[in-house]
Amino acid sequence: MGDGQVAGSTTQAGSGLVLTVLASSQFLMTLDSSVMNVSMATVAEDVGTSITGIQTAITLYTLVMATLMITGSKVGSMMGRRRAFALGLVIYGAGSLTTALAPNLAVLLIGWSFLEGVGAALIMPAIVALVATNFPAQKRPAAYGLVAAAGAMAVAVGPLIGGAATTFASWRYVFVGEVVIVVLILLVLSKVVDVPPSKSRLDYVGSILSVVGLGMIVFGVLRSSEWGWVQAKPDGPQLVGLSPVVWLLIVGLLVVYGFLRWEGRLAAAGKEPLLDPAMLRNRELSGGLSMFFAQFLVQAGVFFAVPLFLSVVLELSALETGVRILPLSAALVLAAIGIPKLLPTANPRRVVRVGLLVMIFGILMLVAGMDPGANAAVVMIPMLFMGFGLGCLSSQLGAVTVSAVPDDRSTEVGGLQNTATNLGASLGTALIGSVLIATLTTSAIVGIENNPAVPVSVQQQASTDMASGVPFLSTTQLRSALSDAGVDESTADAIVNVNEDARLDALRVAFAVAALLAIAALFPTARIPRVAIGDKRATS
Description:
By secondary structure, the chain is mostly helical. The protein contains 17 helices and no strands. Helix 1 runs antiparallel to helix 2 (51-79) and helix 9 (283-313) packs antiparallel against helix 16. The protein starts with a helix and ends with a helix.
C-alpha cells in the first residue's frame, strides 16, 4: 500500500482524532516557555534560585531543542516516525513530571531543560512527517494549518494558563497537566498511521557538527541581551575586547559551514548524510524554510513587546495580559483552518503575501497606538490582524515545505523546519529585546539630561548608572526604587515622567523594527509556489 493510499484511508477513518493528537503535541512543545515567562519569580522562589537561574533554564531548553532537531529527525527516520514520536512523548512526559516535582534548580534543569528538550527534538520533526503520512496532499494545508495554529496558540495563551495556575494554585500543576496529556496521547497513538523505518545509519560526525554549530549560534543569540552583540556591555564578559556573542556567532557559522561541506562530501561519495545539502537548493523548500524563519522572527518579536506594554506600562496582571492577547489566537485558528477549507485551490504565494501584509498593517497600528493615553484596548484590533496574518502563513507553509520533496523525506523536512522556527524565534526575541532596551536607554538618558527638574548631580549619577542599559520598569517599580534611594518627590516625579515617555519610545521603535522585518519577509515569497498543493499533486 502506498503513502497516498494509507493517507487516504486514515483521513476517512479518523482524521479528526489524528489531527487532535498531533496538534495537542505541538501545543505542548511550545507551552512551557510562555508559561515560565510569567511565573519566573514564583518558580525561582519555590526551587531556591534567582530569576537568572530560571532564565538559564529557559535558555537551555531552547538550546537543547534547537540543536537536536536535525539529529532527531534522522533518528525518527531510522526508528519509524510513530515510534520516535512515542519515545519523544515518554521522554518529554518524564521531563514534565521531574519538573513538577523539582525541589531545586539542578533537578529543574534536568527535567525541563534537558529531558523536555530531547523529547521535543524527537516529537516535532515526527509531527511534520506524520501529517504527511496521514493526510492526502489536498488536505495537508488544513492539517498543517491547525498544527501550526496550536503552537502559536500555546504562545498566546501560555501567559493566561501560567498566570491562572500561579495565582490560584501552583505553577507545578501546569507540568502535571502536561504529563496527563502525554498519557492520553500515548493511549490513542495507535490510531496514527506510520511508515516503516528506513534502513540507514546515523552520521555521528555530522550530528556532532550540527549540535556544536547550531548550539553556538543559538546560545550566542540568547545571550546577546546580557552580553551585547559585538561590543561587550560594561558589566558583561569580554573575549579579545569584544562580547563573547560575536565570537560564538562567528565560530558557530564556521562549524555549520563545515557541517554542510561534510554532508556534501558524504552525499558525493554515495554514503548517507545526516542532511542532504541538495535539499537546501530546492527552490520551494528553501522558500518555505525562509518564510518559517521570518514568521517566527516577527511573531516572537511582537509577542515579546506586546506583553511588556500590557504588563509593565499598563501594569496588568498575567491573567489580564493573557486575556488581551486571546483575540490573536481566535483569528489565527479561524484563518489557519478556514482558508484551506473555503479556498482549497488558493494560490499559496498570494495567501502568504496577504498574510504578511495584514501582519504589517497590524504592527503599524501598534506603532501608531503607543501614545501616553494608550490603554489595553489599543492592542485588540492589531492582535486580530496579527492573528489573521499568522493564520494565513500557517495555512500554507507546512504543506509547501513537505510537498517540495518526496514523502519519505518528510522527517528531514521536519527537522529543518523546526530548526528554522527555533532560530527565528530566538533571534526575534533577542533582536527586538536589544532594540527596545537600547532605545529605552538612549531616550531615558537624553530625557533626564534635558530635564531642568532633575538636579545636575542626579543627572550625572543617572547617566553613569544607566550606561549599561535601563531596565524596563513599571511606574510602581520605579517609584519604589527611587523612594528606597532617597530621591525627593519632585525629582522622582520628573524621572517617572521621563521613564514613561522613554518606554513608549522604546516600544514604538521595537514595533517599527518588527514591521521592517515583516516587510523584508515579502522578498523570499517569490520562492513560494503559485499552485495549490493538492492541485499540483493531482496533476503531476
